[in-house]
Amino acid sequence: MAIQGQNAVRLNISLPAELVESVDKVCNDIGCARSVYIAIALRSKLNSDAMMEKMPEMVTMMHDMMTMAKLMED
Q1: For residues 25 and 11, is the Cβ–Cβ distance under 8 A?
Q2: What would the 3-class secondary structure string for 8-70 be?
Q3: Is the pTM above the cut of 0.85?
Q4: How do the pLDDT tens digits run along the chain, 74 residues long?
Q5: Which one, of 10, 8, 40, lies nearest residue 23 by Cα?
Q6: Of 5, 9, 66, 72, which residue is most buried, by most CB within 10 angstroms?
Q7: Domain residues of the chain, as ranges?
Q8: Do residues 35 and 3 make contact, with C-beta atoms less than 8 angstroms apart?
């Protein structure tokens, strides 16, 4: 089943049987295709990784903002 609205590329991957069983159970419970579920899970992981890459920059920005706020109070 292709993911609608996107250019889908067919892949063949090998996964542990117990992982496939777990994915299939979730897919059956929520009523979605295995390929759709795996695509959503991969997108979520990639988004999470991208956010974690930006975390040091965000922490620095927050520190700078707190420093500026403290200076404005004084």
Answers
A1: no
A2: CCCCCCCCCHHHHHHHHHHHHHHCCCHHHHHHHHHHHHHHHHHHHHHHHHHHHHHHHHHHHHH
A3: no
A4: 445 567 888 899 999 999 999 999 999 999 999 999 999 999 999 999 999 999 889 899 999 999 999 889 87
A5: 40
A6: 66
A7: 17-73
A8: yes
